[in-house]
TrEMBL record:
The name this protein goes by in its record: Amino acid ABC transporter substrate-binding protein, PAAT family
Domain of life: Bacteria
Region (Disordered): 31-50
Biased composition (Basic and acidic residues): 31-44
Native source species: Tindallia magadiensis
Pfam families reported in the protein's UniProt record: SBP_bac_3
This protein's record includes keyword Signal: yes
InterPro entries listed in its UniProt record: Solute-binding_3/MltF_N
The entry's keywords: Signal
Domain Solute-binding protein family 3/N-terminal: 56-280
Length: 280
């Protein structure tokens, strides 16, 4: 009787040991599996971060706005696209450029469908929607142009231009917005920059012509008349234009790097070379 009792006690003890050893092995496997899974998740997370950092940036601009941005023979050209390409080439960051109507440009970037756009002016309202770098992409100036042999001067006051007739483009209201006291005689009968330049050079009703500097110089270049017209100083007004990023993603560091490279280009002469290629 006692021997049977000892036999069952011994058997129970052995079974308990086996069960304990078995449970410990399973726990160890689960711990290793969990650790492996955690490491794998971390790897995927890191890869995801790298992918976001190196993603192709979709950058939008306004179509038919030469020489700032335009399309020719299927290729996107212009001052802004050339500057942006050079900046991101130096950053070794791939981009895609697309030109569409201005209203759609702003909407798509605001909603995060695109990553950035060019070249908006800074306003507080826009700054709440878009991330503006510190460094302007370019400055757009409204300036007065006269024939190369003209003795007309501009001292920065509208009063100095009272005796003259100033040509603008039909529908172009920048000059009227500045001339709140109706000092100036404004002729807005020209329907294009080319027509206004021809009128200016042939003494057909206007003494000066006012428009954005880049647009006029580019048109003069295409017309072969850069030596027949001069630009008066100072400009009527000037606006800084930027590459603005969506706020739907965090592009803070990217914007800082964009600033650094753009300043570098301005210092080494690349920036001015791009401007001159469209305006001289």
């Amino acid at each position: 009787m006692n021997s049977k009792r000892f036999f069952f006690l011994g058997l129970t003890f052995m079974i308990s040991v086996v069960l304990l050893i078995g449970c410990g092995h399973d726990e160890s496997v689960h711990e290793k599996d969990n650790k492996a899974a955690s490491e794998q998740d971390h790897i995927h997370h890191q890869n995801g971060q790298d992918s976001d950092t190196n993603q192709v940036l979709r950058i939008l601009g306004e179509k038919d706005f030469a020489p700032i941005s335009y399309e020719e023979d299927g290729e996107i050209k212009g001052i802004s696209p050339d500057i942006i390409r050079e900046v991101f080439d130096r950053m070794d960051h791939e981009i895609s450029l697309e030109l569409i109507p201005w209203a759609r440009v702003q909407a798509k970037v605001a909603e995060g469908e695109a990553d950035a756009f060019f070249s908006p002016y800074f306003t507080e309202e826009r700054n709440r929607i878009y991330l503006f770098p510190e460094e302007p992409l370019l400055y757009e100036e409204n300036v007065f142009f006269v024939p190369i042999d003209s003795d007309i001067t501009f001292d920065g006051t509208l009063e100095s231009l009272r005796p003259y007739t100033i040509g603008t483009i039909l529908g172009y209201v920048s000059l009227e917005q500045v001339d709140t006291d109706n000092i100036l005689t404004i002729d807005d009968q020209s329907t294009s920059t080319e027509q206004a330049i021809e009128r200016l050079l042939n003494n057909r009703g206007i003494d000066l012509f006012m428009n954005t500097n880049y647009i006029v110089w580019n048109t003069l270049q295409e017309m072969g008349k850069t030596e027949e017209v001069k630009e008066l100083s100072p400009p009527l007004n000037s606006f800084a234009a930027y590459l603005a990023f969506t706020r739907e993603k965090d592009y803070t560091e990217l914007a800082k790097e964009f600033d650094r490279i753009l300043r570098e280009m301005k210092e080494d002469g690349t920036y001015q070379s791009i401007l001159d290629s469209y305006t001289k």
